[in-house]
From TrEMBL:
Keywords carried by this UniProt record: Transferase
Source organism per UniProt: Spongiactinospora rosea
InterPro entries: Aminoglycoside_PTrfase (IPR002575), Kinase-like_dom_sf (IPR011009)
Lineage, broadest ranks: Bacteria, Bacillati, Actinomycetota, Actinomycetes, Streptosporangiales
Domain Aminoglycoside phosphotransferase: 25-221
Family matches, as Gene3D superfamilies: 3.90.1200.10
Protein's UniProt name: Aminoglycoside phosphotransferase family protein
GO molecular function: transferase activity
């Protein structure tokens, strides 16, 4: 969860996309290539197909098949599109656990999110003078100081392969086939399913367009344990974005006016 980070450039051609990495200190090219190979075997056509790679070049480069469609960021997601998102996530999360166990852990997951969000809260970020934002900060900081976030770190359920990035720009709607595919696997890895779903529901891109998170979750057949963990992760991720949205905050330049207030409302709703 880093606001405004750009790690690559894209050369989009008729049949393929060439991705060149502008930063790769966290192993992004290797992560993406490994994920594309795994997906081609276990969930073909859910993501771009791997074509070739130069992972140790300077800069590293991956060539993958081009998927046609429109990203869901900035759109009012329809019921059909939300159902297609859920179908894509269900298919991704059905990759066998024995396969996922061999995948490197994602760099952004429960432990990292808990630690980073608490660190942001401890800095007492300037969130301006809006009373709603101040109320949301107090309530959110109290939750972060409790034992509830610590209970999220250990996953009682089998891990899944995840994007570790809930940006709706990673969800590509194919108007012709009426389906959703997933792109941008550079942060991917083994992760907690509930965390992944919390990311999808609460990534700040939800404010760029409309996504009915409750409708999405209703299509995912969550167990009671998963449902409760998803709600807690939603709060954690929403708080992480909220704490970056004050005057001069790192997420502020990338979001429209009023985002802080809308995010404060979200925090209080999730805490209710």
């Amino acid at each position: 969860m880093t606001a405004g980070r750009c790690t690559h450039s894209l050369d989009i051609r008729d049949d393929v996309v060439i991705k060149r990495y502008t930063s790769w200190g966290r192993g992004e090219p290797h992560r993406e290539w490994a994920a594309l190979i795994l997906l081609a075997e276990h969930a073909p056509d859910l993501a771009p197909a791997p074509v070739e790679a130069a992972l140790d070049a300077d800069p590293p480069m991956i060539v993958m098949s081009r998927l046609h469609g429109t990203v869901l960021r900035g759109r009012h997601a329809t019921g059909e599109q939300i159902k297609a998102m859920a179908a894509a996530l269900n298919r991704l999360h059905q990759i066998p656990a024995r396969v996922v166990d061999e995948v490197e852990p994602a760099p952004w997951g429960p432990a990292a999110a808990v630690a980073k969000t608490r660190a942001w809260a401890d800095k007492q970020p300037d969130l301006g003078d809006d009373p709603l934002a101040q109320e949301a900060f107090r309530a959110g900081a109290a939750w972060l100081a409790s034992t509830a976030p610590d209970e999220l770190i250990s996953n009682p359920l089998p891990p899944v392969l995840g994007l570790a990035d809930g940006n709706r720009a990673n969800y590509l709607w194919d108007e012709h086939e009426r389906r959703v595919r997933l792109i941008d696997w550079e942060d991917s890895g083994r992760n907690d399913r509930a965390f992944e779903l919390g990311e999808v529901c609460e990534h700040i891109s939800r404010l760029d367009g409309i996504l009915d998170a409750e409708q999405l979750l209703a299509h995912l057949e969550l167990t009671p344990v998963e449902a409760e963990r998803v709600r807690s992760f939603r709060l954690l991720i929403a708080l992480g974005w909220f704490l970056q949205l004050g005057p001069g905050g790192p997420a502020t330049p990338h979001n429209p006016a009023g985002t802080l207030e809308r995010q404060a409302e979200r925090i209080l709703h999730l805490l209710d």
